[in-house]
Design a protein that fits this description.
about 675 residues, mainly alpha, about 85% helix, globular
Length: about 675
């Protein structure tokens, strides 16, 4: 009995876990600190050695092999059976679809000097469809938006962009919704699809372009195929989510009534998840529009061409006018699909006496639309948008005037901001990663991955590091990594400040969230224009654009995480005498650490995609290498390798932060 009493089981079972948990937290922090200290010490000793630098015009054996492979593909495109009966056939089908829609609304058709449906008919169709799937307010927005394209002098460019977007979305719907339904019904298939979808959504838009031009050549078909691949994941994911979230009791009730699997799907699952599916279509349309604009780099027609040419010549006014058209198109498409997802629910709640007249009014609207289409096919004034785009000229001149005023009056302030961040944060960190030996950076990245995400994350990082070395783009990859890291740090600072504020105040959330939602609608291209006017063609321009592009998603995730902290916990801390700062730092932020890690993950992915696009405005590094590969044939292989390096960076960032998020929520 005495021996038993000397070993109290309760004490051994309960007390040790708390210190052990604390010890793990301390050891992880100390491990990260030790890794950074060792890195700095070795950097001081080995600076400038084994950095794997590569001059802009230099090529590695891999780059030359890729150039030769590209030449071989081009020479055998019309004789190789794989191209004759597979790739060329896909390209032909997609090109036929794109050409059909272009001849319908944007390009001259056959002997006609104008499209089959002129501007008046297109505006009528846009208004009618918006009214039919949404409401009259959205219809007015659509009519105003489409008319604005003509007033800007960008009617054909806007319709070309719309044609590519509609073509891509149509193809996506053909296979993405069935795949989403399958993933929603089958756990095994969902597990198979998830890694592929994660990978596709991690890749920045730039990366899709170069490989597809290898197999499908440049042009609208390649742009559409790239857009299909990039835009499909949202619909697949969200459709699967909608199917899985249908009430099990409802499905069981249908089964008990003798419904077959097909009937259960068509009569229960799909109707009850229709709103969610439409939300997936909305996200796909936004992704497609973003990709279509950037696909101008591979000779895709539309507004993207105008923006790229203006950015390359530093014509801020023209770029702003075209960018505004892209924003208007994004807003119209977003509002229409959003209204479509909630129309039936709003109709059920509405007590408007005109609801019962909706069908007769829609019939009348269809007749009016048919008349407008007839007029646009018959009369030139209704087919070719009248005027010479004077509104667009005024907008461009106003943007140029504003740019000149900014450069003349506040360039000192903007230059000071640029210099402080560049010299105080970007340059030191970039020097650290670019002047360290490649193997030292690799060891540091793998060690941090193991500490933050576990051994699986470490293995993934080690593979990515090895492949990065193999691409021959190590130095440029480290430059891109430095810009991405600095921008992500600033994104998280903004996310913490505004996300916490939004999470603690519903009023602030209601005021700020609509702006954040609108910011996420805009394609990445558009963000470059105003900051090009403020900061000129520098890498800092890309960093600021990346911050503005990535901050909204981080703010919303952090706000939701703060709001998810139980009110009883906050009240308990308040009653214990904690002030506001203590509640935020000791209660709300620690309890929402999984949301913070997720915000970091999403912020990194958004920032990386924008930093790469910044290669168009002086950011250099991997983004510039990709663009140079499109424009200079001898650098094609190098551009392709740069695209692979971007993918590896994205995968590495994503795996580390996702693993860290899972650990934080465990």
């Amino acid at each position: 009995m005495t021996v038993v009493m000397e070993k109290p089981e309760k004490t051994e079972a309960v007390e040790p876990p708390a210190p052990a948990k604390g010890a793990r937290k301390v050891s992880r922090t100390m491990a990260i600190g030790a890794i950074l200290v060792v890195w700095l010490v070795l950097f001081a000793v080995l600076r400038g050695k084994q950095t794997l630098t590569l001059a802009a015009a230099d090529l590695t054996d891999l780059h030359r092999w890729l150039n030769d492979f590209n030449d071989s593909v081009g020479a055998n495109r019309n004789s190789n059976p794989l191209f004759l009966y597979f790739f060329n056939e896909i390209r032909l089908v997609i090109d036929t679809l794109v050409t059909f829609i272009q001849h319908l609304i944007s390009q001259p058709s056959g002997a006609r000097p104008v499209p089959e449906i002129g501007w008046l008919g297109v505006v009528g169709i846009a208004g009618y469809v918006s009214w039919a799937v949404g409401n009259w307010r959205v219809a007015l927005l659509a009519v105003a938006g489409f008319t604005f394209f003509g007033l800007q002098g960008l009617w054909q460019e806007s319709m070309d962009t719309l044609s590519l977007t509609l073509s891509a979305v149509f193809v996506v719907m053909l296979f993405a919704i069935p795949l989403g339904v399958w993933a929603g019904l089958s756990d095994r298939f969902n597990q198979i699809m998830t890694p592929f979808l994660d990978f596709m959504q991690t890749m920045p838009t730039f990366v899709y372009l170069a490989p597809l031009t290898l197999f499908f050549e440049i042009g609208g078909a390649s742009a559409t195929i790239a857009t299909v691949i990039y835009a499909a994941p949202p619909t697949i994911r969200i459709t699967a989510h909608g199917i899985r979230n249908v009430s099990k009791t409802t499905v069981e009730a249908a089964d008990s009534l003798g419904a077959t699997r097909r009937q259960s799907l068509l009569k229960v699952l799909l109707p009850m998840s229709k709103r969610t599916v439409v939300m997936g279509v909305n996200q796909t349309i936004m992704a497609a529009l973003a990709m279509v604009t950037i696909a101008a780099l591979i000779n895709a027609p539309g507004l993207g061409v105008t923006v790229i040419q203006a950015l390359q010549t530093l014509d801020v006014g023209t770029a702003f006018n075209a960018g505004l058209a892209i924003v208007v198109m994004a807003i119209v498409l977003d509002r229409v699909t959003t209204a479509a997802s909630v129309r039936e629910e709003n109709a059920r709640r509405s007590k408007n006496r005109f609801v019962k007249w909706r069908r007769p009014l829609l019939g009348a609207g269809a007749a009016v639309t048919a008349v407008l289409i007839y007029l646009s096919r018959t009369y030139l004034w209704a087919a070719d948008f009248p005027g010479d785009g004077t509104v667009g000229g005024h907008i461009a001149r106003a943007a140029d005037t504003m740019t000149n005023w900014v450069q003349d009056n506040i360039s000192g302030l903007t230059n000071d901001i640029r210099d402080v961040i560049t010299n105080g944060l970007l340059n030191p960190f970039q020097t650290l990663v670019t002047d360290s030996p490649w193997w030292l950076i690799g060891v540091v990245l793998v060690a941090l991955a193991v500490v933050l995400g576990g051994w699986k994350s470490g293995v993934t990082t080690a593979v990515c590091v090895g492949l990065l070395v193999g691409t021959g783009m190590w130095s440029d990859a480290m430059t891109t990594l430095a810009s991405t890291f600095v921008a992500t740090v600033l994104v998280m600072i903004l996310g913490l400040v505004f996300g916490t504020w939004m999470g603690r105040s519903m009023l602030v959330d209601r005021l700020i969230r609509p702006t954040l939602d609108a910011a996420q609608v805009m394609p990445p291209f558009v963000y470059l224009v105003p900051f090009l006017a403020l900061f000129g063609p520098t890498r800092f321009t890309a960093i600021v654009a990346a911050i503005v592009y990535g901050a909204p998603v981080a703010m919303k995730i952090i706000a939701d995480g703060i709001r998810a902290v139980p009110e009883t916990t906050v009240e308990a801390a308040t009653s214990a005498g904690c002030n506001t700062w203590q509640i935020i730092t000791k209660v709300q932020l620690p309890m929402s650490r999984s949301a913070l890690t997720l915000a970091t993950n999403q912020g990194l992915i958004y920032v990386l995609s924008m930093v790469v696009v910044g290669g168009l405005v002086g950011a250099g590094a991997l983004g510039y290498d990709v663009v140079a590969g499109f424009s200079q044939g001898q650098l094609y292989g190098k551009g392709l390798a740069a695209g692979l390096a971007i993918v590896l960076l994205g995968v590495m960032f994503d795996r580390i932060t996702q693993s860290a998020a899972r650990r934080a929520s465990a």
